[in-house]
């Protein structure tokens, strides 16, 4: 691996909906779905882990929510600016293995956790176009990334807390794990916990992408520990994708 | 030109990876040949494996970060079995950083390390001392003195004691540790800090307090290194917020024989390598033939 | 909604300008109505005028700065004659910050201030104590206790003692100062740091050390305020690196009754005004009816 | 005064010679020669005091040398970027009074201290075109701002340490204060001290613009103290222009 923080060019940075931004950078590394980059704000010490949403012609697209200091700085970037990135990092979803063993796949995303699920669905379809993908996306109010996920889904269901789009309520109201060979999920911890519990009941396999605050991003500092049945794991290096049955919430 | 020696242990250069920021060397080996460093301090080791703290473990601060890892580590035995053999292949000095909640803990750990071929022990006395109500060993000089002299009595390795900036009196602390037998000192460990989550109205960390590191603390670390170097006559290893070659030069001019790089590794995975190169460049540019010449140059 | 009271002195809001960063209020009055602040601490005053230190007096650090002004001030008499009348017109509380190199210095200064209509005295015990070899009064609790009790005995004003983060034990220091009669406490003063000019191979400051302030020290300041508030039952004024409304909230949730703004004034001359507005906004947004409700909310 | 740090636009930022940059910003405030702005790097706590070199059509031009962290950040700015500035600050040269009492004026600049002397000469000429200005600029090696100063000078002399341009040696070798009613000077402290001593010998009036590290820039913090016969003065507020006879070097 020869990756390291380096300056690359911002090709696009635009608000897609209230507080949700799309960032496209120049980047040639090949990326697995579920992998992330550390993006370093100019005024910060620590990189911000952001999942890859899409890769295309030597570009990488991220989708990020405006949260605090770092993402606020990102939101102010313009096309042509430079930005320090470092990645791809983490294990990511192992598409080859997933597709080998599973044909009916649920892709579940909550909030900004939908971002990595776009590339996940896309790569699954690219690996085996005959697999069946039903995507379940849940949002608070505004919906985003819908067009993108539809492209790679055989079916798409949506839930919003406010009822502004699709089902009013939680995305977990719509999901029946029994219908699937495997569930792939990224979203708020509370949602992932619910999904895992549902999968456990129906005996469905489930992979989840965990979110922990990070420092090194490469497995050296142990600040991103995820407790699992097999002991402490590093979310940045051993994850962020874990077997849902293993994680101790 | 870059070599230094600490208590009989030779370092190819004075740049050492700081404990807890470099794992056991594996991860950064993916980025560069970590054998080019002067040494690597292992993650803090305790006699029994430790799970570490729960809750959030890291928080960014202006030009710094706080951590509350809580000494998560596989225990000394697993270290010797699984990590040390690899570390020995890296071609640099291995320093075993040892923590403990009681003097017995420290002693047991050191006895095991004695039988290995690590070059040095770094005794981390910032750990909460269970017997004195959780106050760290490194706060009161007399408490530190006791643990250091007990460890010195049994250690077969060169003994470096790592001081906490939270010590009541850093100079007295250094003095007492040397009196108790420390062969060298390293400082500073993290500075106790805290943050509050104003939305939840609660401290960010489950343990309330956490350890501040990074560039923010550099002026404090440098001051303490300068003060300690003035007072003791053993080699001192300086650290705290070093991110570039000039920072290394500052610490060495303050009197440090070598330095450690911690948080900087997170800011740039090649930090160790870059800092070695920058330090060398500075010396060349300024016509310094031997890095040892600048040690203590700013003392007066 | 924003008013607080410290020992009988009412503040229209808990935001006070910190000593040494706001002169005597003139300069920032050119930028906004400083009467909107809860109070202003005067530049540190000594009984005799002081020229201050020579050499460089300021140095930027990552997210902070070090200063070595050395208490340059016109002396208490000139303050009373030339500065106080103007300060009294500003429509906010005037706090006289008093320094000294001996207990007699402090006493003389306080006697003069007694006869004025300032609202409060802030006793800066970070000054080097000439009688104990230049070590600051604020390092050892017992030394501090002596000066505080002597001043308490003569002070006709509400007495706020300003603690140094360089104290050996900040909690014990706070406790002893309260025992000695402090009506309230403010903390932190600057943290001792240093920098080295690697080209000249010399410390940057003529005095070698200087005082670190600004956002870099906020985690340390907040931790100390939290610890002290847990221990004492007098009002505490928190400061150290505050730059925005949320920082104010953090300090108040840690237990502070009010806060002071120092370095932030340099980063933005309207800092005081902005911080008052941001704090108010935060309360409104979060449905807090009275700022007093959040004092100590994060204590546990 | 309603000035304060605010974001303005960079209209030009270019290297004029090795390590010397010209920065033009959008700014409407009227400025006296010798006044300065605090320019705040994005990654810094303290503003950098930089003198105004020229004002024109709602723009202000600075000329700065690459020194450390802050000026390095400035050097990387591009046209269209925003930058935080605060000014004008300081007393500046009192052109009206100077011109009223003096007809033969020496304008002396050393290194980057030449920057404020451009506007000083310009404003003197604008105030009274009949005044006689002889400018003396000294540099280490590269010369800059020569065309600009010539426009406003009746005579121009140059010295370089290396001898690459003009006289080889110091600018003080060229100056004879006796020939002038007043000397106006900005440059390294050692040069200004020399100029003041020369002026004292010949009894010529001399105004110098001092350089001290600053924090507040407005007179509140006392870190920029300049020792004078009349006691401590604040370089940012009482200066940076002081009577050379008053300053205690
Ligand atoms: C593996 C992984 C993938 C992620 N992918 C995305 C993504 O695709 N899109 C997206 O919008 N967000 C993603 N996040 C969350 C994102 O990292 C945070 O929202 C972001 O770091 C917030 O930074 P900030 O400076 O704006 O917030 P601040 O609160 O100012 O950040 C302060 C510190 O806390 C950390 N932090 C704060 N919130 C989080 C969080 N939720 N997770 C991790 N660290 C946090 C920051 O990295 C920083 O170190 C991901 C997180 C992880 C761990
Ligand atoms: C009134 C005044 C007018 C000035 N006008 C100009 C000008 O027109 N062009 C120009 O190139 N320079 C000018 N300077 C000097 C300029 O302020 C410094 O070169 C600049 O601040 C260096 O910043 P830095 O971050 O690159 O250097 P660093 O060394 O990284 O700065 C660290 C800190 O020291 C301060 N500092 C360093 N050198 C100086 C210095 N010589 N004077 C004051 N503060 C310093 C910085 O402001 C900063 O706070 C002026 C200084 C003053 C006081
Ligand atoms: C995430 C993290 C974990 C750490 N773990 C240890 C440890 O196990 N033992 C130890 O002695 N110091 C530990 N430290 C302290 C560092 O070794 C170092 O003393 C401190 O961070 C200051 O240096 P820096 O500013 O260069 O990071 C840790 C620091 C960090 C940031
Ligand atoms: C330039 C400067 C001068 C100061 N002078 C004094 C002083 O005279 N008396 C005093 O008690 N504190 C003085 N202080 C300390 C501040 O009041 C404050 O305690 C400290 O800077 C921490 O707060 P901050 O981080 O908000 O600046 C000074 C600080 C600075 C930066
Ligand atoms: S972020 Fe350092 S181990 Fe994961
Ligand atoms: S910079 Fe603050 S008084 Fe001049």
TrEMBL record, chains A, D:
Binding annotation for [2Fe-2S] cluster: 216, 221, 224, 236
Signal peptide: none
InterPro entries per UniProt: Cyt_c3_hydrogenase_gsu, Dihydroorotate_DH_ele_sf, Dihydroorotate_DH_Fe-S-bd, Dihydroorotate_DHASE_ETsu, FAD-bd_FR_type, FNR_nucleotide-bd, OxRdtase_FAD/NAD-bd, PyrK_electron_transfer
Entry keyword set: 2Fe-2S, Electron transport, FAD, Flavoprotein, Iron, Iron-sulfur, Metal-binding, Pyrimidine biosynthesis, Transport
Cofactor(s) for this UniProt protein: [2Fe-2S] cluster; FAD
Cofactor: binding comment: Binds 1 [2Fe-2S] cluster per subunit. Binds 1 FAD per subunit.
GO terms assigned for molecular function: 2 iron, 2 sulfur cluster binding; electron transfer activity; flavin adenine dinucleotide binding; metal ion binding; oxidoreductase activity
Binding site for FAD: 48-51, 70-71
UniProt pathway annotation: Pyrimidine metabolism; UMP biosynthesis via de novo pathway; orotate from (S)-dihydroorotate (NAD(+) route): step 1/1
Stretches assigned to the FAD-binding FR-type domain: 3-95
Gene Ontology biological process: 'de novo' UMP biosynthetic process
UniProt family annotation: Belongs to the PyrK family.
NCBIfam families (alphabetical): PRK00054.1-3 (NF000798)
PANTHER family (UniProt xref): DIHYDROOROTATE DEHYDROGENASE B (NAD(+)), ELECTRON TRANSFER SUBUNIT, DIHYDROOROTATE DEHYDROGENASE B (NAD(+)), ELECTRON TRANSFER SUBUNIT-RELATED
Free-text function comment from the UniProt entry: Responsible for channeling the electrons from the oxidation of dihydroorotate from the FMN redox center in the PyrD type B subunit to the ultimate electron acceptor NAD(+).
Description of how the protein assembles with itself and partners: Heterotetramer of 2 PyrK and 2 PyrD type B subunits.
Name of the protein: Dihydroorotate dehydrogenase B (NAD(+)), electron transfer subunit
Species name: Inconstantimicrobium porci
TrEMBL record, chains B, C:
Pathway per the UniProt entry: Pyrimidine metabolism; UMP biosynthesis via de novo pathway; orotate from (S)-dihydroorotate (NAD(+) route): step 1/1
Cofactor: FMN
Protein's name according to its UniProt entry: Dihydroorotate dehydrogenase
Purpose: Catalyzes the conversion of dihydroorotate to orotate with NAD(+) as electron acceptor.
Binding site for substrate: 43, 67-71, 124, 189-190
Active site, per annotation: 127
Record-level GO cellular component terms: cytoplasm
Residues holding FMN: 19, 43-44, 97, 124, 162, 188, 214, 240-241, 262-263
Pfam families: DHO_dh
Family: Belongs to the dihydroorotate dehydrogenase family. Type 1 subfamily.
Keywords, alphabetical: Cytoplasm, Flavoprotein, FMN, NAD, Oxidoreductase, Pyrimidine biosynthesis
Keyword Ribonucleoprotein tagged: no
GO biological process per UniProt: 'de novo' pyrimidine nucleobase biosynthetic process; 'de novo' UMP biosynthetic process
EC numbers: 1.3.-.-
Cofactor note: Binds 1 FMN per subunit.
